[in-house]
Design goal:
The protein is α/β, with parallel strands linked by helices. It has 2 domains: 3-274, Rossmann fold (3-Layer(aba) Sandwich); 297-360, Ubiquitin-like (UB roll) (Roll), CATH 3.10.20. Helices cover 42% and strands 20% of the residues. It contains 14 helices and 12 strands. The chain has a 6-stranded mixed β-sheet, with helices on both faces. A 3-stranded mixed β-sheet has the order 3-9-8, with helices on both faces. The two termini are 27 Å apart. The protein binds guanosine-5'-diphosphate (GDP).
């Protein structure tokens, strides 16, 4: 499955967050490099629709979609030159499909900041600079070979690749990540895929705030502006760690007391899933209600293939009711009677929340 790498400076709350995410009770330690081995956790994607559907269908169990989080060792200045755990850090991050930066915004005299004081903007720049430098190194190494190949083969693709790599180099030299700067520079990141550039991955940001800052709209707006167009999630990692110890109802009460409807962890997983370019469709019956993971833009046969390759090969059609229609009508039979059940063929592009039954030959 696809994974999100959690990165950030030491002591910003990465382990606290990761442990809360995976309900792993390994202790979060108060010193740099506490997380030396990357930890991988599989996390269920929260989706209130599953509960509702399982009631309609009388399902015996619910199976949510899952995704992976990898807790990657803390980055420090000079990581791109092998400082700290530099090389290991870069290798781990290269394997992740998206990057979640945890940025410290909480104040706590008992928790040292590697650079002396709490400054979210500076920290984001420190991390991005290391990732940008690593990408520039990758490009400097690859470019002579790519240029030579393009010259000898004179193929269009090779030339387009060299062109894209040179444009990427320019963006990076200006101190901009490819995620933030590629579109404006007219670079198609698909073309650059084979270089496995770090800053070409989708980014999202978690700001780890003090409890009393959670409702501070002015601060949130300022932090959001620092990272746009990336998604920003605001939470207090310490509170998140406490919330998972509570029964659901008490947790919700506590959250609402802080003016929140959804826990930070839940937001992180939900938004992270979208950042990976993924969406779900749903199946439901007496045995189970289940969310299946597909990439955004997947066709109906591709969606069927996630259940079984035979379903894709033998795909005939899919009977689809949207989740909202199904809930409004109360059952598939009523949805059919109301003309809300659609028969879709092999060119149908799946939509989020489609409740599906596939028809296929075996
Ligand atoms: P990492 O090095 O980024 O993995 O950071 P840790 O998760 O190990 O956290 C470092 C220290 O900061 C620990 O003592 C945590 O208890 C503390 N910490 C983490 N999140 C918060 C927070 O939101 N508020 C406060 N006050 N302390 C936190």
């Amino acid at each position: 499955s696809l994974s999100i790498g959690i990165v950030g400076l030491p002591n910003v709350g990465k382990s606290t967050l990761f442990n809360a995410l995976t309900k792993n009770d390994a202790l979060a330690a108060n010193y740099p490099f506490a997380t030396i081995e990357p930890n991988v956790g599989v996390v269920g994607v929260p989706d209130p629709r599953l509960e509702r559907l399982s009631k309609i269908f009388g399902s015996a169990k619910i199976i949510p979609a899952t995704m992976e989080f990898v807790d990657i060792a803390g980055i420090v200045k000079g990581a791109s030159e092998g400082q700290g755990l530099g090389n290991k850090f870069l290798a781990n991050i290269r394997e992740a499909n998206a990057i979640c930066q945890v940025i410290r915004a909480f104040d706590d005299p008992d928790v040292t900041h590697v650079d002396g004081d709490v400054a979210p903007g500076r920290d984001i720049e420190t991390i991005n600079t290391e990732l940008i430098l690593a990408d520039l190194q990758t490009i400097e190494k690859a470019l002579p070979r790519l240029e030579k190949e393009a010259r000898t083969k004179k193929d269009k693709e090779g030339l387009a690749l060299v062109d894209a790599v040179q444009s990427a180099q320019k963006v990076l030299n200006e101190g901009t990540t490819l995620f933030a700067g590629a579109a404006a520079a007219g670079i198609d990141l698909e073309v650059l895929r084979e270089l496995h550039l770090l800053t070409a991955k989708p980014f999202l940001y978690v700001f780890n705030l003090d409890e009393d800052e959670l409702g501070d709209e002015e601060l949130r707006g300022r932090l959001r502006d620092l990272v746009a167009p990336a998604e920003a999630i605001f939470l207090d990692a310490k509170i998140e760690a406490e919330l998972i110890e509570l029964p659901d109802e008490e947790a919700l009460e506590l959250l609402q007391g802080m003016g929140q409807e959804e826990s930070g962890l839940s937001q992180l997983v939900r938004i992270g899933f979208g950042t990976l370019g993924l969406q779900t469709y749903l199946t439901a019956g007496p045995k189970e209600t289940r969310a299946w993971t597909i990439r955004k833009g997947a066709s109906a046969p591709e969606a069927a293939g996630v259940i079984h390759t035979d379903f894709q090969r033998g795909f005939i059609k899919a009977e689809i009711v949207s989740y909202d229609d199904l809930v409004a009508e109360g059952s598939v039979a009523s949805a059919r009677a109301a003309g809300k059940a659609r028969m879709e063929g092999k060119d149908y592009v799946m939509r989020d929340g489609d409740v599906v039954e596939f028809r296929f030959n075996v």
